[in-house]
């Protein structure tokens, strides 16, 4: 019996059918509803690998744009939206793993599980289309900034905009068509709701084919520009490999077409669709490779320079610390007054009346006239201020009077002669 007739049956018959197998098992096989054989381990590995690679690639690009180039453009925001759609698709993958199972035969599922199966495929198709739309727009805009300087309008410029426009219009139309394929909308997944639905085989096949064609065209555009650059062969090969990261996406797209055709012509849909889902992960992950790999060399170079600066700073700090320890052991706790103070002698101080004060040499060791001695251990250095001397001069009244008279006689010699 076709599931399209299920909404028109009495509730009792509906319940009996819902509890039965979604597909009659082959001869000699029995349905295993409780713990059906599956290959969830493979799906889990692919999902984790895809998420890890895409996240790391996006972090490299974000680091380059924010910390190295210090500029963020519109394609970076679109790429972030693509990653959000990618993460949402991964949610569908994990939900499929839990409620249906990867590579689970349809006779090992009950009919009531088909609604969940169809619902996951529906929302997954929307997130897939959103991801492919955004990541290809981001890639083409990024390449326009890389290969088309300023206001140049060459063949590459117009080819990129043509592909970008066609790709955008197609995937917007595809999203609308997927969500309007059944009327009412709930009939798209709920097998208990009667409705009119279009055959989605054409949509699935066209999506896979157009995605493959656009991948090949975008990759060919980049290679043509690279090999026409005035660079050395080695540089061209390096750039060619960087921008050929989408080759994996092309391979994934080709296999996705093959498994999509098999899925559409096979009764065991829950089993055959698993390969379609996994190859779609490969396609989307490849999109992030193409978008982010060109930014990786700059990110690695910047990180390498940062590590080199840190090592240099630590080496200088270690050398400075060793010099400080060596100087401390040699001189003790006494610090030099200046770097050139080893041959320093204190200058003479001349009184206006030419009364000399004895010069204290730094190499001399005069006995202190004070009762307070300098610290004996450790030995004071030969430089710096090690003692002070206070000189008190008392002038008696007679000396002062004679000085005044002498000064007066010098200023008024005629008065002296008169006397």
UniProtKB/TrEMBL annotation:
Subcellular location field: Membrane
Transmembrane segments: 41-64, 76-97, 117-144, 156-180, 208-227, 239-259, 271-293
Rhodopsin domain: residues covered: 61-297
Topology term for the membrane: Multi-pass membrane protein
Pfam families named in the record: Fung_rhodopsin
Chain spans, region Disordered: 318-386
Superkingdom assignment: Eukaryota
Composition bias type Low complexity, residue spans: 361-372
GO (cellular component) term, any one: membrane
InterPro entries: Rhodopsin_dom_fungi (IPR049326), SAT4-like (IPR052337)
UniProt keyword list: Membrane, Transmembrane, Transmembrane helix
UniProt KW RNA-binding keyword: no
Compositionally biased residues, Basic and acidic residues: 318-333
Similarity-based family: Belongs to the SAT4 family.
Protein name: Rhodopsin domain-containing protein
Species of the source: Xylaria multiplex
Taxonomic lineage: Eukaryota, Fungi, Dikarya, Ascomycota, Pezizomycotina
């Amino acid at each position: 019996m076709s599931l399209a007739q299920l909404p028109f049956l009495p509730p009792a018959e509906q319940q009996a059918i819902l509890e039965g197998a979604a597909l009659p098992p082959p001869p000699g096989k029995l349905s295993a509803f409780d713990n059906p054989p599956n290959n969830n381990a493979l799906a889990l590995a692919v999902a984790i690998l895809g998420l890890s690679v895409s996240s790391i690639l996006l972090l490299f690009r974000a680091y380059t744009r924010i910390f190295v180039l210090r500029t963020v453009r519109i394609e970076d925001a679109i790429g972030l939206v693509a990653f959000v759609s990618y993460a949402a698709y991964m949610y569908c993958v994990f939900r499929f793993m839990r409620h249906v199972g990867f590579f689970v035969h349809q006779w090992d599922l009950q009919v009531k599980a088909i609604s969940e199966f169809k619902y996951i495929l529906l929302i997954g198709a929307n997130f897939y289309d959103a991801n492919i739309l955004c990541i290809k727009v981001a890639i083409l805009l990024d390449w326009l900034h890389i290969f088309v300087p300023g206001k140049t309008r060459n063949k590459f410029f117009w080819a990129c905009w043509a592909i970008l426009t066609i790709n955008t219009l197609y995937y917007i139309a595809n999203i609308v068509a997927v969500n309007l394929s059944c009327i009412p909308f709930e009939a798209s997944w709920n097998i208990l709701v009667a409705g009119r639905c279009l055959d989605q085989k054409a949509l699935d096949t066209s999506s896979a084919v157009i995605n493959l064609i656009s991948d090949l065209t975008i990759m060919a555009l980049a290679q043509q520009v690279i090999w026409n650059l005035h660079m050395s062969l080695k540089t061209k090969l390096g750039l060619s490999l960087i921008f050929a990261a989408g080759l994996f996406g092309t391979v994934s797209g080709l296999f996705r077409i093959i498994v999509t055709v098999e899925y559409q012509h096979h009764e065991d849909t829950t089993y055959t669709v698993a390969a379609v889902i996994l190859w779609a992960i490969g396609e989307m992950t490849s999109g992030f490779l193409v978008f982010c790999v060109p930014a990786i060399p700059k990110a690695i170079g910047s990180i390498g320079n940062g590590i080199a600066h840190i090592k240099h700073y630590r080496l200088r700090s270690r050398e400075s610390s060793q010099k400080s320890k060596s100087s401390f052991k040699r001189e003790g706790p006494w610090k030099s007054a200046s770097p050139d103070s080893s041959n320093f002698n204190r200058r003479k101080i001349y009184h206006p009346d030419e009364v000399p004060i004895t010069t204290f040499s730094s190499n001399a060791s005069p006995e202190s006239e004070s009762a307070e001695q300098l610290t004996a251990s450790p030995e004071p250095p030969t430089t710096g201020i090690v003692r002070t001397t206070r000189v008190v001069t008392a002038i008696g009244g007679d000396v002062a009077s004679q000085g005044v008279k002498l000064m007066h006689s010098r200023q008024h010699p005629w008065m002296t002669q008169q006397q």
